[in-house]
Amino acid sequence: MRLMRLDETCEMAGIKKTTAYKMMNEGIFPKPVNVGERAVRWVSTEIEAWIKDRMEERDALAGE
């Protein structure tokens, strides 16, 4: 497990920064962890779990 900056998080998830913030506001993307007064990071395992959930949703839809 490690903490990632937003650009690295978006690259891993395959999304743009604006999309990440939109999905966070909608409660469908992991929220960041505060690591300083003006610094936040995302937990890599939470992003990996989010990606895995998207894959499971895709597979469930394909099985219908």
TrEMBL record:
Signal peptide: none annotated. Gene3D superfamilies: 1.10.238.160. This is Phage transcriptional regulator AlpA. It comes from Isoalcanivorax pacificus W11-5.
